[in-house]
Design brief:
- Helix content is 26%, strand content 28%.
- It contains six helices and ten strands; from the N terminus they run αβαβββαβαβαββαββ.
C-alpha cells in the first residue's frame, strides 16, 4: 500500500501538491517522526472520536501532543470517547490498521484541528499506511482543513521531544 485511494483522490480533487516520504514501518506517530527526522510538532496525527450521540469526528493534533478530553469538552461543549479499533477500521476501510490520515472530510467525518499544528511552517501526515508520509506547506494544510473547527484541546506530551535539524 502507499497513499490510501480515498485520500489520494481527495488530494487530487482539491489540487493539493505534496511530497511523498517513504520510511520503515513504525508503530506510532512519534516513532514515525523520529524515523523520518522531522519534529514531532510538525507531524499531524488523526484521532477518531465518538461523541455522546454515537457519531464520529476526527481530531487532528501534533504527534508531540495528546488529546485532553476535558479541554475538548471546554472548547466544543461535547463529551467524546476514543473510537475502538473496529470502528476505526470500518471508517478508514482502505487504510492500514491504525494509519489514519488526518483529513476526515474525505471519509465523511467532520474534523477538529488543534491550533498548535497550525503554527507549523510545514506539515507532515500519514497517508494511510505505516510507511508513507506526505509533506505539505502550511497553506496546503490550511486548505485541506478549511471546513474544520479549530481550537485548543491537546497538551504537549511531558518530556523533551527530539527535534531533528
Amino acid at each position: 500500500m502507499s497513499i490510501a485511494p480515498t485520500f489520494e483522490k481527495y488530494l487530487a480533487a482539491e489540487q493539493i501538491g505534496y511530497t511523498v516520504i517513504r520510511h520503515e514501518p513504525t508503530a506510532s506517530s512519534a516513532h514515525t517522526a523520529h524515523a523520518t527526522h522531522i519534529p514531532e510538532d510538525c507531524l499531524a496525527k488523526g484521532i477518531v472520536l465518538r461523541r455522546d450521540g454515537g457519531d464520529y469526528l476526527l481530531a487532528v493534533l501534533p504527534a508531540s501532543h495528546h488529546l485532553s478530553r476535558s479541554e475538548f469538552k471546554n472548547e466544543f461543549g461535547v463529551n467524546v470517547e476514543l473510537a475502538n479499533e473496529d470502528e476505526i477500521d470500518r471508517l478508514f476501510w482502505d487504510c492500514a490498521h491504525g494509519a489514519v490520515p488526518p483529513v476526515g472530510q474525505c471519509y465523511g467525518l467532520p474534523s477538529v484541528v488543534d491550533d498548535s499544528i497550525n503554527a507549523q511552517p510545514e506539515i507532515y501526515m500519514e497517508a494511510g499506511d505505516h510507511r508513507t508520509l506526505l509533506h505539505l506547506t502550511r497553506t496546503q494544510f490550511a486548505h485541506l482543513t478549511a471546513g474544520a473547527q479549530h481550537g485548543r484541546f491537546s497538551e504537549k506530551v511531558p518530556g523533551e521531544s527530539v527535534v531533528w535539524g
